[in-house]
Amino acid sequence: MSMIVQANDLTKRYITTTALSDVTLEVPEGRIVGLLGPNGSGKTTLMKILAALLSPTSGTVFIDGLIPGVATRALVSFLPDVNHLDRWMTIGEAGDFYADFYRDFDRTRFQELLSIMELSARQKIGSLSRGMAEKARLSLVFGRRARLYVLDEPFGGLDPLARSQVLEALVANFRADCSMILSTQMVADVERFFDDVVFLDRGCVVLAGAAEDLRTQRGTSIEGVYKEVYGHVEAR
Amino acid sequence: MEFDDRTPIYVQIMDLIKQRIAAGELKAGAQLPSVRDLAQQVVVNPNTVQKAYLELEREGYVATQRGTGTFVCGDAGSVGELRRRLARETVRTCVIQLRSLGYTADEMASMLTAATREEE
Which among A136, A214, B58, B61 is placed 20 to 30 Å from A152, CA to CA? Predict the structure, then answer.
């Protein structure tokens, strides 16, 4: 089985803060990894490094054996936690834009995703509600046949119904030859999708493992483990 | 399907399939849904369904034929045995809970009879 992500001792320092310190992470092919932690624990920084939008201060990272850069951007489909689409575009035009940019963009799939999400290609990005815009962005991101999907808070602005549409799209699109890393605060809603979970706190990995193993070992849900991990940290 | 997130999800999927086999809904030779279909139906990670199928195969309930699918094994004896085992497990958890509420064996028995009548 090949490793899609191999990160060793990643550290990212900004002028006054250390966002990540010595993070080591391996993601084999065919896994869905939950990146968990409170705000400011380093999730977004780590994801941006994987998406080749930030470079680490020290440490190494390989995506499918390659150093992040132009070549890996072709392999990684990234959903940032803020809107990255122009408001004047229609959803269909955004699809054209993606098709121009990314060779792995599959228009048929994109159409299927839009219908799962109950969106129309003719709708203008600027006219969409927060949840609808989120679903449109997810349709674009999943429309790519990427090796790695990096999703930063994909469930942020969604109501429960939209959340289940997105989860449905997520399961329908998951293939054995790709991997997914996603961060979320909705641990309870999403935990049954995780193969592995990584808990970050103040830039460090505090716990990592297979989700089912953690359930067996600790006799509680991943959400329960989350509370144990961070409840303990707060009490410190 | 509602899951209890405290127990491994693959175990719960296994239990679900065992129950269907024991109840005779899934008969010997019946084909299980594909991993992907079941994952979509119950909305879980396909790897988890895969693991449940592998474990069911290891325990001898199903067999996978390459390229065609996963089928329920044909052995009426083991279905009867499975049925009895699931019944015993259900009764045991029920008894443990009722005992913790302070009920005696006789009271439990009469409650069971009463509950059965209500269901009918």
Answer: A214
